[in-house]
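Histidine--tRNA ligase structure dump, as promised
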Amino acid sequence: MAKKKTFRPKPRRPRGFRDRSGEEILAEQAMLRRICDVYASYGFMPLETPAFEFTDALGKFLPDVDRPNEGVFSLQDDDEQWMSLRYDLTAPLARHVAENYDALPKPFRRYQVGTVWRNEKPGPGRFREFTQCDADSVGAPAPHADAEAIMMFADAIRAAGLEDRDVKIRVSSRKVMSGLLEAVGLDPEDKGVSGTVLRAMDKYDRLGAEGVRLLLGQGRKDESGDFTQGAGLSDGQADHVLAFMEAASDDDAAAIAQMRGVMGGSAVGAEGADELDAIAETLAAMGYASRVRIDPSVVRGLDYYTGPVFEAEVTFPVQNEKGETVVFGSVGSGGRYDDLVKRFKGVEVPAVGCSIGVSRLLTALAARGEAQAARGPVVVLALEADRMPAYHRMAAALRAEGIRAEVYLGGSGMRAQLKYADKRAAPVVVIQGEDERTQGEVTVKDLELGAKLSETVESNEEWRSGQPAQVTVPEGELIAAVKRALGAD
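structure tokens r here:
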């Protein structure tokens, strides 16, 4: 009788999802602290919402409605109600505000950090699961709340680690987009053709003018063979749209004036241009004009935006896994969405917010070689099995001084323990074998300094003669010796 084969699942990850190392998580936590400190400095308070929302609460404001599953991961609960993993942090905020409307101060100013999920095609630095860090003002009308949101967004991007030369922050308005749609003979409220036009325009930074022209026309097939249906515009209409998107200038007033000219007599377009004028005036007065530009090529893909929109895009080259230079795109964005809470309340509630894609920003910095290696804990070697309480006391004493420390618990010998410390990126190891113990001493070995010296020392004799990376001190001086090693350059 044949032996039944045991099924063993293949260890693999779904496309667009990834495992993350301790170093990356620590870098993300540090970045999030810096960003949230900026949000808090503007008076915003933290909020948490569930990962799942009822699908009807999320609405149709999804990131990529061209895909058959509409861009979200969904399931039915035991009541047969459809729930979806949140695709951003703004739609859950709208639900929270509507549910607690009377109890909240208006404007309601909150920031939130959380994981979001998007069931869309992965790309360079674009994952199906990633971290966002948002701040929003609900109950604050345009344009002054928008100007504040843009200034705070620029400060947060800088705090995250991007220097001003590394990023361009661009501002436009969905109202001027509506003015453009009217100028080419389309209904801005038509979510079909007009929505397709806006989504095509939003891909300008990634696909360029010719790629967008295809999406404005009959459609485009990407490198994988997937075909995206186009908006079906005429060549003349497509020319008008592309001319509008290229109306950028180093002079904000000139850019807004050119946008007014392309929109013609559209009333909603003129209202949007007036708001952009007010925003540009505030940004200039507050010293942000060199960091932020009015640019009509900014669209933003989500349909819930109703007024000013903005985004931050890295300017340095980024390479993908194949070593090819690619357009990385946006690492953060924001805008006005006055109709989102209205879906629940039936009345317009003005709101504006910003979001930073921390996962994407970390990927961009890592691609440029700026990922910082995380420093591991101090490792106390365990060389004598019957001395484990003493080793634990050493580690506890270091932790009491705010120093990360652990005792090696793997059961191996000294050589393996030192290899373990190297893999843990430990800056220092503490050694107390029989010789040190009988003398009431400990040895502190500076692994970071030792690694630097090994690059310059030319002989074993030279290395043994000094041993500057290793000191033996009385047991009572352990903490001081470790602190000196950790503080060394």
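The radius of gyration is 28 Å.
lmk if u need the other ones
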